Structures are given as C-alpha cells and as structure tokens.
C-alpha cells in the first residue's frame, strides 16, 4: 500500500502554474474525454489540480511533490486503460479483468499495487428489481484509479465527502478505498429493505392463492442469490484488509472506518442469508398449497365424475327396462299371418303380462346392483 506521508505542501498557487490544462477545484470544470469522469491531484488531502485528461494528470502528479492522483473512469476505452497501465505499471492480469469486467468481488496484491473488485447494487422501485454494477480499483503509491462498469455507486459523492474532510483524505489511497467500500456497503441497505418488502408481498400472494406467486418467488430467489454473490465475497476482502493492518501500518482512523464497514456488511450478509432460507420455506409452502388446491380440484372432479356415472347408470337401467316391452310390442306388431298366439283367446293378456314380467325382472336386477 501507499505511504500515507505526502511531505510538505507546495507554495500557494503552485497548482495554478502547473499546466494550462490544469484548473483549480473551484473553477468551472472543462469538458473531459469520454470515459474520464473526474481526475484530481491531491496534496495532504487538498485538491491542488483538476487535469482534464490523463496526460495532464500524469504531468501534474510528477510536478506536485508528494501528490496523489485520483482518477475516476466509467467504461473506459482500451487505450485509456493501456495509458494508465503504462504510467503506473499496473499488473497485466488485473488490467484484463478491469477491461472485461464480470468478476466476483476480490482483493489481490501485486507488489505495491492493490487491485480490488467490488459489486455495487441498488434497488429499482419501479421495476421491483435489483440492479448490479461492477467497480474496480487500482491503488498504489501516489494513485487511485476507479473503473466503473455501471451507473452505481455515485463516486462523485464519495469524492466530495472526502474532499470536505482533508484530514481523512490525507491518509492516502487507503482512505479512498475505505470510503468507496463504505459507500458500496451503505448502498446495500436500500436493497435489503426492498427485498424484504418484496418477500412480505409474496407471502400475502401465496396465502391469497395468487397463481403467479411461484414465478415471482423464483425471480426473487435469483435476485437474492445474485445479491449474495455480491455481498458475501466482500467479507473476505474486508478480512484481507483487516489482516494487513499491522503489516502495512494502517492508520488507526482507517482501521476504525473499516471495522464499521465490516459490521454493516456482516449484518447485510446475515439478513440476505435469512432471505434465501425464508424464500425456500415460502416456496415449499406455496408448493404445498398448490398441491392441496390441485387435490381439492381432483376430488371435486372425481365427485362430479362419480355423480355423472350414477346418472348414466340410472338412464341406462330405465332404457333397458323400457326397451323390453318395446321389443315385445314390436314383434307382435309385425302383423304376420302365421304368428304364435294370434288366434289364442288370451294372447293379448299373455303379451301384456310378459311385458310387465320382463320389466319387473329387469327392475329388480338393476335395483339389486344399485343402478336404481
């Protein structure tokens, strides 16, 4: 890590004579190249120059004895990254990571250069979703480079806060790192609140029988897992920084700041872990309720089918009973000349009796089988 002792500040007005492109912090900021958000050179925590380009920043840093450059980039070009890598001798692997992004939070030391990857998050109320952004930091003797891939966090606010407290900023690149860490972790709090509110709504939907609850539980579970991937590895980053307190002679004030960040981060991680377990339980309850609803529906369908079966049995039984006399009457209604019993005196009574007998026999048969 960088040495926090910056030496004696230059005479008043020295920063104004550095370069025609370097301006005071209080002057109107000229238009900067695309990708360069802000660039400042600080001495003892006070901003002495505001270069408008990387080349100007390099010259100012060389001319200001004991200065620290803080360069803020957002989606920089390869040329800008290559220029910084050449000037500050940045490690090649870390430079590739900064260009390609899609890294998990981590901390790596390359000699006197520290490379840190952070994942910021913010909750979007309109979409009820979590948006993630990647932030890379290079820290070394006399420089801090921040590379953002996304719209969050607002590092301009971090810069303003540190510039308002030169005592802390004078502690060097570590102060910038800890302030950025604090901003990222503080940004997790609204996300936790938003996720908690979404979970409360999902619980209401589940017990209200909302058919879309399963889809929303799945989507929210994915967001919680992504949030875990952003926050949990950050614990190791903080532990690594804490473990280097004595070795790198970290200032006591910075140690206090980092311990505060660690406390907040631990609370966030614990709550997010709780969210994941809670969503798993909600998903189980929802599956049980859906299964119960399906069972009730199947039971209703089975009952309706059974009732329909009984009706079909009754109709079939009565149809068979009524078919018997119809058949007999049809046979005797053929009017053939030579038919049995046509000349018998009791033939008509016999036919009617036969009809009644067949109907009675069928009725008793169906009654015994429960069809009637």
Please explain how this structure is put together.
This protein is an alpha+beta fold and 372 residues long. 57% of the residues lie in helices and 15% in strands. The protein has helices at 54-63, 78-88, 92-100, 155-163, 166-169, 173-207, 213-243, 252-332, 347-368, and strands spanning 36-43, 46-49, 68-74, 106-110, 113-124, 129-140, 143-149. It has a seven-stranded mixed sheet, with helices on both faces. α2 packs antiparallel against α3 (92-100). The chain is rod-shaped.
Q: Features of this protein?
A:
372 residues, alpha+beta, seven-stranded mixed β-sheet, 9 helices, 15% strand, rod-shaped, disordered N terminus
Lay out the secondary structure.
Layout: E1 36-43, E2 46-49, H1 54-63, E3 68-74, H2 78-88, H3 92-100, E4 106-110, E5 113-124, E6 129-140, E7 143-149, H4 155-163, H5 166-169, H6 173-207, H7 213-243, H8 252-332, H9 347-368
Parallel strand pairs: 3-7
Antiparallel strand pairs: 1-2, 1-3, 4-5, 5-6, 6-7
Roughly how many Å apart are the termini?
95 Å
Largest sheet: 7 strands, mixed
The geometry reads as rod-shaped
> What is the number of helices?
9
Question: Structural class, from helix and strand content?
Answer: alpha+beta
What's the gyration radius in Å? Answer: 42 Å
The percentage of residues in β strands lies in 5-15%
Uncertain runs are 1-28
Element pattern in H and E: EEHEHHEEEEHHHHHH
Let me know the number of strands: 7
Across the major sheet, the strand order is 2-1-3-7-6-5-4
Helix content: 55-70%
What's the rounded overall pLDDT mean? 82
Multimeric state of these chains? single chain
């Amino acid at each position: 890590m960088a040495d926090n002792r910056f030496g004696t500040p230059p005479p008043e007005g020295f920063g104004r004579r550095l370069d025609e492109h370097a301006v005071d912090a209080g002057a109107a900021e000229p238009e900067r190249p695309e990708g360069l958000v802000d660039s400042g050179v600080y001495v003892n925590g006070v901003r002495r120059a505001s270069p408008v380009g990387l080349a100007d920043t390099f010259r100012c840093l060389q001319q200001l004895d004991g200065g620290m450059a803080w360069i803020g980039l957002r989606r920089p070009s390869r040329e800008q990254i290559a220029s910084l890598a050449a000037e500050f001798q940045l490690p090649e692997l870390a430079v590739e990571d900064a260009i390609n992004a899609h890294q998990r939070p981590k901390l790596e030391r390359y000699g006197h250069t520290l490379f840190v990857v952070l994942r910021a998050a913010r909750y979007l109320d309109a979409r009820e979703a979590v948006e993630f952004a990647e932030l890379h930091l290079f820290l070394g003797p006399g420089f801090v480079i921040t590379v953002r891939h996304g719209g969050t966090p607002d590092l301009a606010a971090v810069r303003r806060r540190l510039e308002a407290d030169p005592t802390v900023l004078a502690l060097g690149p570590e102060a910038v790192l800890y302030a950025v860490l604090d901003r990222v972790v503080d940004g997790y709090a609204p996300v936790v609140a938003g996720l908690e509110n979404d979970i409360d709504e999902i619980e209401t939907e589940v017990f209200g029988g909302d058919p879309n609850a399963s889809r929303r539980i799945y989507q929210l579970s994915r967001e919680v897992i992504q949030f875990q991937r952003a926050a949990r590895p950050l614990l190791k980053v903080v532990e690594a920084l804490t473990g280097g307190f004595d070795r790198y002679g970290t200032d006591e004030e910075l140690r206090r700041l980092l311990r505060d960040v660690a406390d907040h981060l631990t609370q966030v991680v614990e709550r997010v872990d709780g969210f994941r377990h809670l969503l798993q339980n909600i998903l189980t309850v929802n599956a049980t309720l859906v299964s119960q609803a399906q069972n009730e529906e199947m039971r209703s369908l089975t009952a309706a089918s059974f009732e329909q079966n009984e009706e079909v049995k009754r109709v079939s039984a009565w149809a068979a009973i009524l078919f018997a006399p119809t058949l007999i009457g049809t046979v005797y209604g053929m009017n053939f000349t030579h038919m049995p019993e046509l000349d018998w005196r009791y033939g008509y009574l016999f036919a009617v009796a036969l009809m009644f007998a067949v109907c009675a026999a069928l009725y008793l048969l169906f009654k015994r089988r429960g069809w009637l």
